[in-house]
What we know:
Layout: H1 2-38, E1 46-49, E2 55-58, E3 65-67, H2 70-78, E4 85-89, H3 90-98, E5 108-110, H4 119-125, E6 129-133, H5 144-149, E7 153-157, H6 165-178, H7 182-203, E8 209-217, E9 220-222, H8 228-235, E10 238-239, E11 248-249, H9 251-257, E12 261-265, H10 271-279, H11 288-291, E13 295-298, H12 300-307, H13 313-324, E14 339-340, H14 342-349
Parallel strand pairs: 3-4, 3-6, 4-5, 6-7, 8-10, 8-12, 12-13, 13-14
Antiparallel strand pairs: 1-2, 8-9, 9-11
Helix pairs in contact: 2-3, 6-7, 7-13, 12-13
Amino acid sequence: MSRGISKALIIGVAIIIAVVIIAVYYATQVHTLRQGMSSIGVNYPITVIDYLGRNITIYSQPSSVGTISPDCTQIIYVLGFGSRVILIDAYSEQLLNYLNVTIPSNATTINSIYGSPPIEPIITAHPSLLCADAGFQPQLVQSIGTLSAANINVIFIGGTSNTNVTGIENDIMLMAKALGVPGRGEEVISHMNNVINYVESKVSNEPRVTVAYISWYNPIYVAGNSSFVGYYINLAGGYDPFNGMYPTVSPSQLLAVNPDYIIADDFMGNYTATLQAILSIPGINSTNAVKEDHIYILGNFAESLIEEPGPLSVYGALLLAMILHPSAFSLNSTAIPHYISAQWVDQYVKPNLNITLSDG
């Protein structure tokens, strides 16, 4: 009997050893496979093609990054490279402050960014990679040679030229590849789609309402249904009736569409002045928006979410949907203030650079 027990024990030990060997081998293979997968598209040097069709070769992961538009900033931070930012614009700083995100203390701030920012501070800061918005900063193209001579790689994303979320996702993947983190880019896009799907599911059975999204009143500038803002209005259960990207329209054209809602930037710098400017448009009182008290003015934070075509723009779609269809989000219409402050956005929309929904 003792011999039998010894034999069984030996066999049992042998089986355990074999299982352990197989498990270790399997784990090693999985780890190796994962390492191989994570290195796909990451090994430098790599060449990316930016929005302008330029081939840009990057020889190592950028050790420092410059951003001169808020959409670029959103992408850089959401990809995990905020600590490497050494050049940033003032509008991005404002957005990050709303999000309670720390900006590196050694970062240089540029105040003027439209068309083309000043070149001298960019060269002085000397980021190894600079992200720019092709739609917002087209004149910067003229300075590419100067920046290249200073060993600064410039990548243009589509930015404000984008007409839908696909363009924004392409921008994210462009920068993710350049920064060597394509997997993270895919994760960000997946999280963005979660927010979009959430919004669409909430408004799918809601009546579609007509929206005039106004950025200025004399002349009247509107978003237009070819812009990414118009795209998000549609996604949020609204309809932008104006053709094109950011067209100007006459008062008669505005009255002809008879918008159910008017959503406007705080273009006069305070709610009362902006509201009065809108109400000064000839004939505006005859519209459904005025009759039903559906004029909503966006504070800086709300405006950034909707008008800056970065990863956080999906929260802009969520905000628009809450304004247009509050009951779909278990909100009373009176819970939507006529001035959308940063505090209200924080409480109800809850945007964050992890691109998640705080409440299921």
